[in-house]
Specification:
Layout: E1 5-15, E2 20-25, E3 40-44, E4 50-61, E5 64-69, H1 75-79, E6 85-89, H2 103-106, E7 110-113, E8 118-127, E9 132-137, E10 142-146, E11 152-156, E12 161-164
Parallel strand pairs: 7-12
Antiparallel strand pairs: 1-2, 1-6, 2-5, 3-4, 3-6, 4-5, 7-8, 8-9, 9-10, 11-12
């Protein structure tokens, strides 16, 4: 699709026999209710194909969202959507408080150490429950950097730059 999209969830599994899907929200849990406002979403397959879907219902279970889409009313139809991303046009995204970012805005950012060395580029972000983790493509390997105040010192989305403080054991000596 030509429009700028952000990912707000990932389909984990089919739930029940009527096409309901369990979705991991990839948005701040403080904004979980934002799923109630959805009328349409873009579902993106793991290989990049987009399909526009009408949202029929939204429910919540623990820290996940249970969604039903028009045209998805059986368990077999739902199973075909496992691992697909739930996306919305970026202009529908909620404005985040200072110091918070959409994961999609962080992908592609160049990461520098506070000593001035280039560490690599953020290629993915995931949550561990206690904090997010940045997957950084380093010179020799992928690095996992925790998104904590102790490590992340500055994020400049506009200039696509992040500065981190490298604490002992965070990055192997062979990587720097």
């Amino acid at each position: 699709m030509a429009q700028d999209l952000i990912t707000i969830g990932k389909i984990l599994k089919a739930r029940g026999i009527h096409g309901e899907l369990k979705v991991l929200p990839l948005t701040d849990l403080d904004f979980l209710e934002r799923f109630n406002e959805l009328k349409d979403v873009i579902l993106t397959s793991p290989d990049g194909n987009d399909v526009k879907c009408k949202v029929n219902s939204v429910r919540y279970h623990k820290d996940c969202v249970l969604l039903c889409f028009e045209g998805c009313s059986t368990i077999d139809e739902a199973k075909r959507l496992i691992n697909w991303s739930v996306r919305i046009p970026k202009d529908l995204a909620r404005e985040l408080p200072s110091g918070r970012y959409y994961w999609s805005d962080l992908i592609g950012i160049t990461v520098h150490s506070d000593a001035g060395l280039i560490v690599g580029e953020i290629i993915d972000v995931f949550s561990t429950g206690s904090n997010d983790v940045f997957v950084i493509k380093g010179r020799k390997k992928e690095l996992l950097i925790p998104a904590t105040l102790e490590v992340v010192k500055d994020v400049d989305v506009k200039n696509k730059r992040m500065t981190i403080h490298i604490i002992k054991g965070l990055i192997g000596d062979d990587e720097m």
